[in-house]
């Protein structure tokens, strides 16, 4: 597997893929030649579109163009985050047995897709780009996740990769990937404590990492805000202009999804412009009932609209400092990654928090995470290079993991921010005399009562030999790997019986049968897309061929009309020239097809 292990930054709004090649990282361009791909999928009457092609047609096909799917993974339909976002998305999200599914019309039929399936389509596209670039198959990847992803969300990414035909070498967090990239490229000047703020389209992810030296990067603490990203700024701007439109024209634009999509695209563009200019103009012709909407937004208004969101960026920064018990004066480097860190006000507030510290944003924020993931992929797949020798990272558990003890109390076995991989055990016993079975309920979360935490699953140790209460010694072991995947074992020390964790209660997870079906569908869609692409290519080539022939013929006819009295040799020479031109066009057409 060695050389073709890719690193993927699977982003809420954009995704990027890189590979270690010729002793350095190459960011792989997609079929448009772009180094990152919009995380958009669109369905139409004839085709499925992914990336730029999907994003570019959103205002014409708003109900069937999906973005932000990452915000849905590992969540229940009634999750407040899902409910809140549903009001803004033009596509429809439906409740399928408690899980959110996206409903679209594809090839004239109503179809439902799970968010995992949508992500798998994006992963498939990135894999394809890599295969075209490398001219070889790609089957393994390091994929980045938000560092505070819970078990369901990590499993969802694993399932999406599986459906896309990729096996996961490791899941690493965005900030860690960024730290690896900065480290490899010698962009971290000192050994010491680094705060990395990864602020993209969908979420905010902050890590405090210690650069121990000799290549070792140890995560001390992570924190984040899964409900804060560039998309939230877009929403505020959109709402502002909806009100302005109402005020100016006494009309409600929200009744027209197509108009809303056009407004959203214009607002995002304006937001990005405001990172380098003080004012941005919005000009959308015939947006609603033939009204032209021409307006503008200043940086000050943008800041006012988003003041509370901008302030919220400091909360996870304070939290990682608190958790790691490190004062902000002991932070040697502050690194910014993710598109939203381009906003000057965000930079200002972070720099001010660190007493005016200069921020390190020397790496391209759109590519740095895929870069780090590609380095990690090369390290893990055994690529030999002096540059990779010293790259090692130590990650931490994003949430506490434990089991329920009497009275519904959370009994943590692995604590949040414990270094991973790790294996930890605790001894439990029975509450009743002659108790023959012992139920182990596994939870993740920081709250004291288990009802407030997230139930991952439960299993039972049965046939415990009868004994007075408190006598059986049941050892429960939590084993968590470097990607954050958990296995739980229970062992009766008195009798030697043991049992492994089996997820029985994971409401969010797809079943094996569902995944198998999705793998089959993915192959079908992939081959349909390929056929459409090939057909399109053949059509374009033929059109170009006909055009060239027409051109040659037209030129000769014009010459003929203008030269009615030419000599015999001239006519013959022209005729031969035309035949040769037709033949060479034909030859070129045959070679290219
Ligand atoms: P990422 O997920 O890191 O690719 O970040 C994507 C987010 O960054 C989107 O919400 C973009 O609108 C936002 N973004 C990209 N460029 C800029 C910019 N120049 N100014 C403000 N936001 C930006």
From TrEMBL:
MF GO annotations: ATP binding; ATP-dependent protein folding chaperone
A Pfam short name: HSP70
Matching SUPFAM superfamilies: Actin-like ATPase domain, Heat shock protein 70kD (HSP70), peptide-binding domain
This protein's UniProt keywords: ATP-binding, Nucleotide-binding
Keyword Lipid metabolism carried by entry: no
InterPro entries membership: ATPase_NBD, Heat_shock_70_CS, HSP70_peptide-bd_sf, Hsp_70_fam
Family that this chain belongs to: Belongs to the heat shock protein 70 family.
Stated name of the protein: 5427_t:CDS:1
Species, as recorded: Acaulospora morrowiae
């Amino acid at each position: 597997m060695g050389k073709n292990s890719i690193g993927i930054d699977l982003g809420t709004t954009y995704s990027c893929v890189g590979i270690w090649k010729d002793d350095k990282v190459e960011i792989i361009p997609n079929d448009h030649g772009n180094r990152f791909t919009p995380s958009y999928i669109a369905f139409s009457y004839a085709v499925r579109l992914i990336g730029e092609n999907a994003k570019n047609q959103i205002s014409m096909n708003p109900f069937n163009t999906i973005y932000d799917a990452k915000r849905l993974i590992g969540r229940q339909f009634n999750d407040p985050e899902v409910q809140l976002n549903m009001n803004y998305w033009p596509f429809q999200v439906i409740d399928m047995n408690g899980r959110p599914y996206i409903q679209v019309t594809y090839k004239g039929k109503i179809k439902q897709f799970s968010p995992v399936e949508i992500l798998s389509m994006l992963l498939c596209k990135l894999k394809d780009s890599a295969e075209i670039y490398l001219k070889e198959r790609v089957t393994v990847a390091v994929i980045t996740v938000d560092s505070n992803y819970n078990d369901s969300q990590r499993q969802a990414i694993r399932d999406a990769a599986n459906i896309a035909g990729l096996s996961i070498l490791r899941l690493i967090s965005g900030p860690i990937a960024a730290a690896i990239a900065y480290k490899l490229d010698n962009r971290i000047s000192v050994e010491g404590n680094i705060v990395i703020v990864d602020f993209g389209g969908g979420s905010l992810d902050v890590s405090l990492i210690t650069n121990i030296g000799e290549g070792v990067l140890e995560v001390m603490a992570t924190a984040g805000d899964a409900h804060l990203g560039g998309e939230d700024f877009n929403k505020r701007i959109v709402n502002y202009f909806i009100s302005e439109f109402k005020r100016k024209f006494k009309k409600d634009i929200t009744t027209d999804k197509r108009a809303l999509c056009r407004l959203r695209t214009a607002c995002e563009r304006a937001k990005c412009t405001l990172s380098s200019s003080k004012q941005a103009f919005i000009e959308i012709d015939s947006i609603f009932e033939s009204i032209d909407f021409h307006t503008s937004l200043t940086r000050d208004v943008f800041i006012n609209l988003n003041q509370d969101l901008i302030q919220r960026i400091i909360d996870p920064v304070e939290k990682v400092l608190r958790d790691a018990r490190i004062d902000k004066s002991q932070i040697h480097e502050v690194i910014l990654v993710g598109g939203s860190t381009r906003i000057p006000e965000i930079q200002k507030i972070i720099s001010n928090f660190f007493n005016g510290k200069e921020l390190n944003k020397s790496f391209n924020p759109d590519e740095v995470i895929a870069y780090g993931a590609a380095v990690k992929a090369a390290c893990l797949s055994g690529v030999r290079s002096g540059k990779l020798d010293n790259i090692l990272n130590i990650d931490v558990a994003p949430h506490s993991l434990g089991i329920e003890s009497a009275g519904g109390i959370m009994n943590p076995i692995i604590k949040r921010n414990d270094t991973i991989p790790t294996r930890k055990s605790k001894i439990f016993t029975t509450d009743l005399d002659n108790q023959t079975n012992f139920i182990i309920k596994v939870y993740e979360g920081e709250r004291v009562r288990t009802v407030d935490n997230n139930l991952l699953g439960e299993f039972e140790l049965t046939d415990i030999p009868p004994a007075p209460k408190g006598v059986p010694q049941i050892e429960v072991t939590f084993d968590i790997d470097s990607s954050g995947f958990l296995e739980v074992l229970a062992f009766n020390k008195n009798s030697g019986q043991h049992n492994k964790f089996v997820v029985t209660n994971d409401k969010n997870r797809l079943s094996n049968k569902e995944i198998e079906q999705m793998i089959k569908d993915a192959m079908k869609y992939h081959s349909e897309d390929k056929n459409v692409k090939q057909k399109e290519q053949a059509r374009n080539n033929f059109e170009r061929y006909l055009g060239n022939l027409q051109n040659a013929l037209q030129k000769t006819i014009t010459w003929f009309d203008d030269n009615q009295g030419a000599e015999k040799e001239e006519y013959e020479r022209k005729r031969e020239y035309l035949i040769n031109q037709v033949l060479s066009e034909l030859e070129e057409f045959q070679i290219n097809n």
